Amino acid sequence: MSSAPTCAQVLMRLLREYQVEKVFGIPGVHTIELYRGLPGSDLQHVTPRHEQGAAFMADGYARASGKVGVCFLITGPGLTNAATAMAQAYSDSIPMLVISAVNRREDLGMGRGRLHELPRQSDVSRGYCLWQHTLTQAEQLPEVINRAFQLLSSSRPGPVHIEIPIDLFPAPMPGAIDDYRAAPAPALPAAGITAVDTAVEWLQNAKRPVILLGGGAQACGADATALAEKLAAPVFESLAAKGIVDERHPLCGGANLSFDVVRERVENADVVLAVATELAETDRNLVRENYAFKGKLIRVDIDPGQLVCNGNPDLAICADAGETLAQLNRALPEGDSERQNAVAEELAAILKACRKEWWPGSEERFAWVQALRDALPEDGILVTDSTQLAYNTNHALPLYQARSHVTCTTGYGTLGFALPAAIGARLSTERDVVALIGDGGLMFTLGELAVAVEQKLPLPILVWNNSGYGEIRDFMDDAEVPQEGVNLRTPDFVALAKSFGAEGCLIDQPEQLGPAIAEALRRNTPTFIEITAP
């Protein structure tokens, strides 16, 4: 390089230093100089059709891979278009780095009517970001990027937003491009010895322990399984944690926390170990009433504020979930196989009883759930939107490993998530991905199908077509509210897919689903599989 590197070039260099491989964004007139830094950076740029799609893709990429999802956004509307997706990532603690432009430094706060101007753009994202920062000097960039990745890798994750004034993108940076390096990853905090000793004593003496896993335990599947076996304890997962423990394991109760029979087992446990979970209503599929813990409650979370949210613990451990579970496993003796078998039998009866509590319509959709489980590869990733069939898969479709359940039915609960999130997920891994979305939600982000076509993704997209917002329609009926605004005219999704250069088929029987998914996975283009809902 014959001249000093620019701020934009150093940004690309630092992203690669932090093992970023793909960025999702739409170029704009304010980011031309940012994009000048891309050539030669070894970063792959993916162009969505809407900035909301960019952030949803980054979200899906992060959930499926465990890496940081990265977006490039333009000033003003680029950021506000992505706001909903960023808020979903914040709600579900997904690591996302959003780099946006902002007007020139001399124009900030001046109200001069500049293109894309907001009075205080930095205020827009503060409510749904871990950290928001406006760069004021190009030389600050390495420190700011390092701080962002330290936050994203060593604390409860979420979106970080860094806005860069457009006059700083071409600004020269000191030194050579090779001088810019990533900071070393921080050591994750472990639990204190006294806390571990207390937890071990309580758990070892427990007669009816229970383990609750949340989405922050994605890397803890092996340790959680080993601990369950040592304690002969059933493991129940939040929706965000589904699949962390193989749901075929006889001690895994899956994501069934919404059912009364599970509530009774949890509430009557003498010790509950809750790991990296909010204990929120979204963990229980919108069952509002929290558990009344009658025994001792041990909570493990990297976020100290979360340790007392939705339930005061008898023992609070502020530490990394994986480190803490490993410490507990090292301290506890091997389990008793007879006790494990007895608990497994008890759990099997509980899960059978859960089906009696399923809401109306679930039984007729169960055949579709089973067909989807049969068709999904063993290590496949299921990406779901807020739609009727997805609520059944939350409970009735077992998953076998972590990062197999990418869903917006937790937390913020936006529509339109599944299509772009599935694209991001598939771009992060060689694992097969299947998306499930309703006809109403699909129309929110339909344009992102073009991205899947461009990327030649073998992506089956199941469209549960009930001609409207079926869940809300059911709620209106239950509340005796006249149906208004929930019955929609839907397009011919098969024809629509083909107009994009994708494939499509229409099915109405569960036995047709397996062959349709298998064929879709063999293609080098996405496939709409439109399901006529019963």
TrEMBL record:
Chain ranges of the Thiamine pyrophosphate enzyme central domain: 196-328
Keyword Heme assigned: no
Keyword Hydrolase: no
The species this protein was found in: Microbulbifer flavimaris
Family of the protein in this entry: Belongs to the TPP enzyme family.
Residues covered by the Thiamine pyrophosphate enzyme N-terminal TPP-binding domain: 6-117
Identification of the protein by name: 5-guanidino-2-oxopentanoate decarboxylase
Limits of the Thiamine pyrophosphate enzyme TPP-binding domain: 388-531
Keywords annotated in UniProt: Thiamine pyrophosphate
NCBIfam families: PRK07524.1 (NF005712)
